[in-house]
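Now for today's protein:

——
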Amino acid sequence: MSGNTPCDLRLGRVRLTDGSVVDVDIRDGRVAAVTLSGPGPATAAGATEVLDLDGYILLPAPAEPHAHLDKALTADVFVNPTGDLMGAIEVWRSNRPDLTVAEIADRAEAAVRINLAHGITAIRTHIDVSEMVGTTSAEALMAVRDRVGHLIDIQIAGLVSTPSVGDSGRANRRALVDTLELGIDVVGGCPHLEDDPAPSIVAALEDAARFGRPVDLHMDETLDPGVLDLVDLARLVIDSGFEGRVTASHCVSLGVQPAEVQREVAALTAEAGVAVIALPQTNLFLQARGVTVSPARGLTPVDTLREAGVAVAAGADNLQDPFNTMGRGDPLETAALMVMVGHMTPAEAYDSVSNTARTVMGLEPVGYEAGSPAEFLAVRAGSLREAIASAPADRVVVHRGRVVSRTVATVEQPD
């Protein structure tokens, strides 16, 4: 039977990951009660709204910890001539000065709604920041946040262009400061593309301390084993006392190091409290182009990092742009890749795109107990494994205790 306390929303007859079938009562944006379902359809007693979710499994809502919404949905317009990272960077840099706030905002909102329909209720997007583009992308994404912030939480990270330090980088760094003053949420950057990575890491930590923001840097997005700036990042974080507020995205080159080096770097990363975001889709697309014998997967060593105590989330990264012409904005696609490429269990893989992703983003984790944030994804599936494998279209998305998206698919087949 459902709880006796009045509630705003009841998710009735929904299956949990342990197989139990329950009614979940939600009040004021949080779980109020979870009780075993009785026989028959879900009842409306005491509930303002009831959804009978017989046949669905209820999951903590996914979060997207690493997106590029200002680039999204441009793959048919800006064509990557080489298919690799530098080809994507060059075609993007040559075209981005022509992009307007309105054009970026419209594409970004479309991308947000794609993610939302697939179950994502929080997203961190990196945006281009440079002397050339100024605050254009920041203004666009802040406009999007104003439009849809009641449906999904949006964090904005300033991805400052290189160079970002020294005399030649002063204007780009000033542009980043301008976006921080405008109100973006996270300090970003790409140290491995700098001539001297360490000073750019120092600058990022200094800006973060000055503005009271976390840091999320693109790190070591290369298969070159001679590049391993994650070590400098971890040491500088420890020296600065910034532990627990820094994220390293990609960390591709760590995956091509000898096992002992991987373990040493993983231990140092854990000591620094640096979280890592694995990005299998884009790195599979960009890395090892032209390598015909045993091409690397371009994935950071997930198991080694997790064994050392590093929080490892997973994200989709780019959505149909020059950096990844594929992608569906679906966290179940990312989770499936973490099973197939990262060799995680389905439960581990889903956690990497949900609660671990939320933790990396500084958000409260989601559970089934009373008091938990009511951030849920209900999928028409009998188990978590089936949900990840099949990625059913039928989904219900709950954010802050209310339904913000629902998709119902119809299949018609002749006899």
DSSP finds 13 helices and 16 strands in the chain. The first strand starts at residue 7 and ends at 15.
